[in-house]
Amino acid sequence: MKKIRWTRKLCRHTGLLLAAFLIFILALTSPAKPKISADESSDSSKVQEESSKAEEERPETKYEKIENSVFDNKGLLLLDNKEHHYASDGSDFVSIYQYLFNSNGEQVLNTGSTNISGNQEMMIHLNSMISDFALNTKLRTIMVRNASYSYNGRLYKTMGDVNDADEKAEDKKTADTNSDNISSEGCYEHLTGLAVDLQLYEKEKGTYPQYTGEGAYSWINENCWKYGFVLRYPDDKAEVTGVAGRKDHYRYVGTAFAQIMHDNSLALEELYAFLDKYSYEEPLMMTTVEGKKMMIYSVELDKDKSSTTIPLPDTSRSDMSYSLTGIGSGRGYICADLGAASADNSSSQQVTQAKTE
Predict the structure, then answer these.
(1) What percent of the chain has pLDDT over 70?
(2) Neighbours of 239 (CB within 10 A)
(3) Rounded CA separation 168/159 (Å)
(4) What predicted TM-score, i.e. pTM, was given to this entire model?
(5) CA end-to-end span of the chain, whole Å?
(6) Which CATH number among 3.40.50.300, 1.10.357.10, 3.40.50.620, 3.30.200.180 corresponds to the domain 64-84+267-357?
(7) Which CATH number does 88-190+195-252 carry?
């Protein structure tokens, strides 16, 4: 009996030793798990968090059939030059009068005529810009000389008819072969409702000096993009715009597009090729100085049909919207406002730089 118990005990110990030996062999032959440092673990978590966050911030996609005519030289990026002619009927313009005063009811902007009118969005941002200019410089000498001039239900160009300007430019070209098609007078935007010419009004002296954007007035050139305006005809872009430098002519394109033009030193004529690089799948994502997250991209229009089905971000939330614009080039441009940007996504200077090929 004792012999049987001893044999059983020996078998039990032998089995345990064999099991331990097998575990040891498996441990030697199995690949070791890499050690993850605290930093690597943190980086991995960040990547997953950022990827997840990007997916959350990007809205759902919807598809809409849009008439191609919507992009036919319409919207904030419309062109009015020698190649593209545009003239609104002014039916949706507002008078400049109510935009001459700041939020305290104090007059900060002057005008040559209360018949001057323009796009309401442009007027609102013009008022905001000049109000801040007056606050920062203590000057209230800015006057709007030209915009769209409404009288008896009709619109007029206060600089004179574009055709006359073209004829003068042609005469100048004949007299000066070095003009290279650049007109010192050709300024084509006064019937768009999106442009203004500035002048100075010194009330105490009763004088109207020319606006040069120099001295204290350089504040406007340095900050106009924050309000959606650009200096439309800079000296160094004359070859591109076809118009010699104009220091007094500002064009409203909206805060997002103005920021892109400012960050990349683009004239309006150069902006379209810049935007063509971005698609709905790979859009330009940016945050404006107003703290809004924007999604900007271009789409190719269906040339064989009168409409195109295009992808759009779902902007059904009350703080979201999108706008359409184009110049009839066969492409359309979409600027979607996705609402307020998160605190860690407030930088804009890098995302608006030119996309590399």
Answers:
(1) 68
(2) 10
(3) 13
(4) 0.76
(5) 89
(6) 3.30.200.180
(7) 3.30.1380.10
Q: For the chain, where do the domains classified as CATH 3.30.200.180 start and end?
A: 64-84+267-357
Say which residue the tokens 């005063």 belong to.
101
Tell me the backbone φ, ψ of residue 319, rounded to 5 degrees: -95, 15
- 3-class secondary structure per residue, 228-282: CEEECCCHHHHHHHCECCCCCEEEECCHHHHHHHHHHCCCHHHHHHHHCCCCCCC
Of 110-114, 191-195, 215-219, 258-262, minimum mean pLDDT range = 110-114
Task: State the average pLDDT over residues 218-224.
Answer: 97
Q: Where in the chain is the domain with CATH 3.30.1380.10?
A: 88-190+195-252
The upper half-sphere exposure of residue 62, i.e. CA atoms within 13 Å in the direction of its Cβ, equals 10
What's the Cα-to-Cα distance from 145 to each of 8, 158, 280, 338, rounded to whole Å? Answer: 111, 9, 41, 36
Structure token pair of residue 296: 């900007």
Q: Which of 129, 61, 83, 131 is nearest to 312 (CA)?
A: 61
d(CA 138, CA 130): 11
Instruction: Give residue-wise pLDDT tens across range 18-76.
Output: 555 555 554 555 444 444 444 544 444 443 443 444 445 678 999 999 999 999 999 99
Judge contact between 341 and 351, C-beta under 8 A. Answer: no
Supply the mean pLDDT for the chain. 79
